[in-house]
Amino acid sequence: MITRRKFVHTSAAALAAGTVRAEEKEAPLFSIGLIADAQYVDADRGGIRHYRNSVKKLGSAVETINEAEVDFSIHLGDLIDRDFVSFDRIREPLSELKKPVFQIPGNHDFSVPDDKKSEVFGKLGMTKPYHSFSKSGFRFVYLDGTEISTFAQPRDSEIFKEASGILKEFEAEGRKNAKSWNGAISSSQLAWLNGELAAAKAAGEKVIISCHYPILPDNSHNLWNDREVLATIDLFPGTVAAWFNGHNHAGNYAERNGVHYVTVEGMVDTEDTNAFAVLEVSRERLTIRGSGRVPNRVMALG
C-alpha cells in the first residue's frame, strides 16, 4: 500500500515514466506557467551562465506555456542580470504570452545605477512590491524579498544602512544566508503576510506563496529572516499549500508541516537546455509538469 506521505515522494517518478495513477489525471482547476531567473544581459558567457541565450529559451518557454493554455504565469525573479536596458530586450518574448505574467523582484533586477532603482518595479510591470489575489479557492501571495537589502535602494538610503547592519550581524553569527545577494522582508510586510494567511484561513482558501528567495531547506540562498517567515506560516497549519521561489539556480525541494517548498531551476545556467514548468492546481494536489532542467513533481495537499 502506498501511504499519502510516500505518494508525495514517489509520484514524480511515476509521472516521468508515464504511469500516472487514475486520480492524478483529474482535470485541474487551473494551471500556471513557472519560470525563474532568465537573468538576461547582452554579455558573453560568465561561468555556467549563458546570458544572451535566455531570450531564445524564454521565447521557447512562452510557446509551450501558451500551448498549455495556462491561466497566468509567474517569473520568480532576476529577469535581468544587470544593465537597465536589459529589461527591454528580455520583455520582448514575455509580451507573446497570451495570459498575464506576474513578476517577482530579484536581486539582479536591481543591478542598475542608483538613479534607476526606483524605476525597476515599473519595468517589471508591477504596481505594488507585494500583493495577493484569490482564484478558485486558492489565494496567491507575492512577496518582495528585496525590500530590506543592500542592493535595491541607493547607498545613501536608510534601508541600505539598516540592511548593512543586518548583514554584519548575521556574518558575525555565522549564518549560511549572510550573503550580500540575499535580503529580507520588513516587519510591516511580515505583518501583512500574517493578515493574508488569517484572511485565507477564514475564507477556507489554500495559499500559494511566491518569492524570489527560498526559506527551506536551510542554505546560503535563503531570505535573511527565513526563520521568522517560517514561524508565521507555521501559525496556520493546513492553510499554506506551497512556497515557490527561484534564486538558487540548482533547484531544491523541502516539505515541512504539509507545506511544499519548491525552488525552480534557473533558466540562465545552461547553453541549450531550458528550465520552466506548468503547474496544475487541483483540490487534492499540485502537479509540476517540468521542461528541461525542471523535474516533474506531484505534491499532495492536506
Count of helical stretches: 7
Question: Which structural category do the helix and sheet elements fall into?
Answer: alpha/beta
| Overall mean confidence score, pLDDT | 93
Look at the structure and name the CATH superfamily.
Metallo-dependent phosphatases
- What is the approximate shape? globular
Strand content: 15-25%
- Proper CATH architecture: 4-Layer Sandwich
Count of extended strands: 12
In N-to-C order, the SSE pattern is HEHEHEHEEHHEHEEEEEE
Counting structural domains, the number is 1
Reading off the top of the CATH hierarchy, the class is best stated as Alpha Beta
The low-confidence parts are 1-20
Radius of gyration computed on alpha carbons:
19 Å
Determine the fraction of residues in helical runs and give it as a percent range. Answer: 25-40%
Let me know the largest β-sheet. 6 strands, mixed
Distance between the termini: 19 Å
| Oligomer description | single chain
* CATH topological fold name: Purple Acid Phosphatase, chain A, domain 2
Strand order of the largest sheet: 3-2-1-10-11-12
